[in-house]
Amino acid sequence: MKDNQAKYPQLRFKCFTDPWEQRKLGKMGYTFTGLSGKTKEDFGHGNAKFVTYMNVFSSPVSNSEMVENVEVDSKQHQVEYGDVFFTTSSETPQEVGMSSVWLETAENIYLNSFCFGYHPMVEFDPYYLAFMLRSPVIRKKFMLLAQGISRYNISKNKVMEMLVPVPEIVEQQKIGSFFKQLDDTITLHQRKLAKLKELKQGYLQKLFPKNGSKFPQLRFAGFADAWEQRKLTEIVNRVNKSSNSDVLPKVEFEDIVSGEGRLNKDISSKLDSRKGTLFESENILYGKLRPYLKNWLFPDFEGVALGDFWVFEATDVSVPSFDYYLIQSDDYRKVANDTSGTKMPRSDWKNVSSTDFAIPSKDEQKQIGAFFKQLDDTITLHQRKLEKLQELKKGYLQKMFC
């Protein structure tokens, strides 16, 4: 493909009809290296800062706070506003050449040695540049440049030969502003979600007794009695109904989102004839394998649990939703983490089942269960909103660049 060949994106803002130029990066700017000649003694102190590899890797726009101290000399290249950073190496070709644009004017800032920099010499809207370089059409080009077997690398000279779409600056500004606003909205939802999850963890700490105590730190009004000590087998039954149904959905350990008690994908079509433990709606699925922050699910459907799961059902002396949150409490997790085995450590049923847990009256169980259920519903709502926004962004990145 020749430089300057015209193209049209699939989706555009109104009033823009001109074709987009395809231009080589190397004809619009120059590259520079990151820190060189440094030893580990140079890092962690000094008056200069450097942009970390993870800062570049994790976002199309660099975070000015993700920098660390370093001692520098006059040979090093300071970064400037509008510079682009590229990662040069990764374990997979999909993650090579991840880009990030620096939008700060602070001095004495440098780039880490595992990335290279690019300084544009033509006018670019920085946000257009940031999201264009992360668009699927450009990411595919980077993957094709990746070379290696156990670790993949790219040549900055090859990157400079890459053709990228360059519309008029006014259209760039429109696109850049659009994606910046969308990213800001996503960030806002991520922060809200993180705060809700922190809130839940705080309440799990305070609404359940700790370290053998019979009284929680925080209680609902009207409850003052000591909690009774009950073994787990007194509040849940362990289900052992095996099934190899090829009609019911199958749940595996990796399907559960870490620490959230929900599935990370739709498993309705994941049907096969493998044998597992049959579970019903509102049973509790508890994975025995580490990590234990990713091992519980309270399904609202019937299915088959494959592999290392315990399936619990609440007994008639307790409230199902209370059991669900009891299993997330600190005391239960300590017992579950008392594992046996080395290669694949597992919780020990004899240990878990015989351990005493503090249990309140049924009325207090209802209050606690309802409270956490409402909090979980709010978390799920924000999670879904966030996922929809992320899918929306993914779709626009696919259609708005060529």
Brief overview, please?
This protein has 402 residues and is an alpha+beta fold. Helix content is 32%, strand content 22%. The strands form eight sheets. A four-stranded antiparallel β-sheet has the order 2-9-5-7. Strands 14-21-18-19 form a four-stranded antiparallel β-sheet.
Task: Report on the architecture of this protein.
The protein has 402 residues and is of the alpha+beta class. The chain contains ten helices and 24 strands. It has helices at residues 53-58, 126-132, 136-145, 156-160, 169-206, 232-235, 320-326, 330-336, 349-353, 362-399; strands at residues 21-24, 29-33, 43-51, 67-70, 84-87, 89-90, 99-101, 109-111, 115-120, 147-148, 152-153, 163-166, 228-231, 236-239, 242-243, 250-251, 276-279, 284-287, 296-297, 303-305, 309-314, 339-340, 346-347, 356-359. A four-stranded antiparallel sheet has the order 2-9-5-7. A four-stranded antiparallel sheet has the order 14-21-18-19. The longest helix is centred in the middle third of the chain and has 38 residues, at 169-206.
